[in-house]
Write a structure and sequence with these properties.
Blueprint lengths: L1 H7 L7 E2 L5 H5 L10 E2 L5 H8 L4 E3 L7 H9 L7 E3 L2 H8 L1 H10 L7 E3 L4 H11 L3 E5 L9 E4 L5 H7 L5 E5 L5 E9 L5 E3 L3 E6 L2 E7 L8 H14 L5 E9 L5 E7 L9 H4 L4 H9 L13 E8 L6 H10 L5 E5 L10 E9 L2 H14 L6
Parallel strand pairs: 1-2, 3-4
Antiparallel strand pairs: 5-8, 6-7, 6-8, 9-10, 9-11, 9-13, 11-12, 12-15, 13-14, 15-17, 16-17
Helix pairs in contact: 1-11, 3-4, 4-5, 12-13
Bound molecules: adenosine-5'-triphosphate and magnesium ion (MG) (2 copies).
Adenosine-5'-triphosphate (ATP) binds next to β14.
Protein name: Phosphoribosylaminoimidazole carboxylase
């Protein structure tokens, strides 16, 4: 999606990813032999150096990259300076959730209580005594889609939690009894200005984002602005440019906590492609190229994003849903072209726009009904 936006602005993209047919490479053909895409991992320093040698601006769309390689590249003299966005400093903090929480706390962003723990029963029991039960035990690194979290509901589960997260660096968070999960995409410019997209409601199923409702509705008329401000303040505290996804918890009393930050375009911002005046992808590019940002306003009254999550090793269930989607007005299908479909893997998404929430919800209904019953 980032590369599709780049092509409209005639920005040449070189992609580092595993496989010659990786999704982004399917979108952008190399424009010259010296700009050929690279087959390799974003965690491989040699491949990152190879990519850096080909580009003027380097950006990431996943935070689990080798940051030491980025820092080393940034310190090397070269003819045309290389810009890395967001900064390696920012990626290093965000890729360790414990460091990320410490950073947010230091910069006065509201976060739930948390504590470092050792991977021992005694240490986690002590954390449970201090922060209460349930206790959210999290891997500090390499987490996504909830893989890296364990909810400890009673101390008898601590050994199961340690087994499930064996070998991973851990910390613990106080349980947040949220009423809703919300998210705000924020664009940060090279000179540190921030601009927020509307706050949206995110609905997770089995720890994977299932639906996004834009905009977030509430009887509390201060909520939109408060959520945008909390998200914007959090992102102002980092360095480097680009789009950031800020996941938040909304409490019953209206309070907001930051859950976590993604230093890149984010699933909760996919709706912006059809629903906003400028998509998160285009604004990410504009930000890292120091171009004027586009408007982050909605251009439709209501939008919904439905993730297409693999149900099995076959795409057939998802294709049945996309075939129905193509018959409904205001509905756009995005299929990512990933090589293999797997249960729980994000294979694409559908965006629905309409004149009212009632209209977008009516358009969503047949799509939900078409999903295999366990994923609706
Ligand atoms: P993502 O795919 O969003 O990167 P992740 O693996 O990094 O997910 P988190 O966002 O930390 O995981 O947590 C996943 C989900 O678990 C959250 O969306 C929320 O529903 C729940 N959760 C996380 N932390 C807490 C908490 N402290 N209290 C209650 N629920 C929580
Ligand atoms: Mg995460
Ligand atoms: Mg998350």
């Amino acid at each position: 999606m980032l590369v599709a936006s780049a092509s409209l602005l005639n920005i040449k993209a070189v992609i580092l990813d595993v496989g010659e047919n990786a999704p982004a490479k399917q979108v952008a053909a190399p424009t010259a032999p010296h700009l050929n895409h690279i087959d390799g991992s974003f965690a491989d320093p040699a491949k990152i150096r190879e990519l850096a040698a080909k580009v003027d601006i380097l950006t990431v769309e996943i935070e689990h990259v080798d940051v030491s390689a980025l820092e080393e590249i940034q310190s090397l003299p070269r003819e045309t300076p290389l810009a890395i966005h967001p900064s390696p400093f920012t990626i290093r903090i965000i890729q360790d959730k414990f460091k990320q929480k410490e950073h947010l706390l230091k910069h006065n962003s509201p976060v739930s209580e948390f504590t470092s723990v050792e991977p021992t029963e005694a240490s986690i029991t002590e954390a449970a005594q201090r922060l209460g039960l349930p206790l959210m035990l999290k891997s500090r690194t390499l987490a996504y889609d909830g893989r890296g979290n364990f909810v400890i509901r009673s101390v008898s589960q601590i050994s199961d939690a340690l087994a499930a997260l064996a070998g991973r660096p851990l910390y613990a968070e106080k349980w947040v009894p949220f009423s809703k999960e919300i998210a705000v995409m924020v664009v940060r410019t090279t000179d540190g200005k921030v601009q927020s997209y509307p706050a949206v409601e995110t609905v997770h199923k089995d720890n994977i984002c299932h639906l996004v409702f834009a905009p977030l509705r509430s009887r509390d008329h201060t909520l939109q602005d408060r959520a945008k401000r909390v998200a914007g303040d959090a992102i102002r505290s980092f360095t480097g440019a680009g789009v950031f996804g800020v996941e938040m918890f909304l409490l019953e009393n209206g309070e907001l906590y930051v859950n976590e930050i993604a230093p890149r375009p984010h699933n909760s911002g996919h709706y912006t492609i059809e629903a906003c005046e400028t998509s998160q992808y285009e604004n990410h590019l504009r930000a890292i190229l120091s171009l004027p940002l586009g408007s982050t306003n909605l251009q439709v009254p209501s939008a919904i994003m439905l993730n297409l999550i693999g149900h099995s090793s076959s795409m057939s269930e998802l294709i049945a849903t996309t075939n129905i989607a193509l018959t409904i007005p205001g509905v756009s299908v995005h299929l990512y072209g990933k090589a293999d479909c797997r249960k729980g893997r994000k294979m694409g998404h559908i965006t629905i726009v309409g004149e009212s929430d009632a209209e977008t919800r009516a358009r969503l209904r047949p799509l939900l009904e078409s999903l295999p019953s366990s994923s609706a």
